[in-house]
Design brief:
13% helix, 9-stranded antiparallel sheet, SOUL_heme-bd, Reg_factor_effector_dom_sf, two-stranded antiparallel sheet, Multidrug-efflux Transporter 1 Regulator Bmrr, Chain A, mainly beta, 205 residues, SOUL heme-binding family protein
């Protein structure tokens, strides 16, 4: 995925820049095949990046690939994550004072992490079948995104701040937002923060 100085030497998704300003770009991304896993951080000791190992095992980035062929699949960039709040499957009951509220349903965060597979896989059927049932391989249609790029460590707080600003710019300029933002990170953890490339992407119609 790159070096300590941020050089990106792996395949990246194909897109066309439709318009560009000092603040953001509008891009159209080509259809792609992706491998993804959805989880809650609590499943990985609180780590929001816990799904990385699951996907890395599928492609064989850290050893023998865990897919049916088995076949090593080249790593690409970026690693894409999307977070959303989901209702817990059972209500959480709390004991309150007499006459007070007695229960409620809490929310927790679900994270979907996605690897874009190399372009040589033209369909989901052409990609090796995962052995881990948590990994889903699917085809993603081409679509438009508003994109803002930034450096440094892409914390959840930083990503949300960038996304909020990007959404304001898009709505100001007459674009219709069509979904929640995703975070795209192009570099491995050992890349020095000043040389990292990150993007916040919001789908638009």
């Amino acid at each position: 995925m790159g070096s300590v100085l941020g050089r990106i030497s792996v395949e990246t998704p194909k897109y066309q820049v439709l318009s560009s300003s000092a603040e953001y770009e509008i891009r159209h991304y080509a259809p792609a095949v992706v491998a993804e896993v959805t989880y809650t951080p609590s499943q990985f000791d609180g780590s929001r990046d816990g799904g990385f190992r699951v996907l890395a095992d599928y492609i064989g980035a850290l050893g023998n690939p865990k897919n049916a062929k088995p076949e090593k699949i080249a790593m690409t960039a970026p690693v894409i994550t999307k977070s959303e709040k989901i209702a817990m499957t059972a209500p959480v009951i709390t004991q309150g004072p007499p006459g007070g509220g007695g229960g409620g349903r809490e929310e927790e965060e679900a994270v979907t992490m996605r690897f874009v597979l190399p372009a040589k896989y033209g369909s989901a059927e052409e990609a090796p079948k995962p052995l881990d049932e948590r990994v889903v391989v699917r085809e993603e249609e081409g679509r438009k995104y508003g994109v803002v790029r930034f450096g440094g460590v892409a914390t959840e707080g930083a990503a949300r701040e960038k996304a909020e600003r990007l959404r304001e710019w898009l709505e100001r300029d007459g674009h219709k937002v069509a979904g929640e933002f995703v975070l795209a990170r192009y570099n491995p953890p050992w890349t020095l923060p000043p040389f990292r490339t990150n993007e916040v992407m919001i789908p638009i119609e």
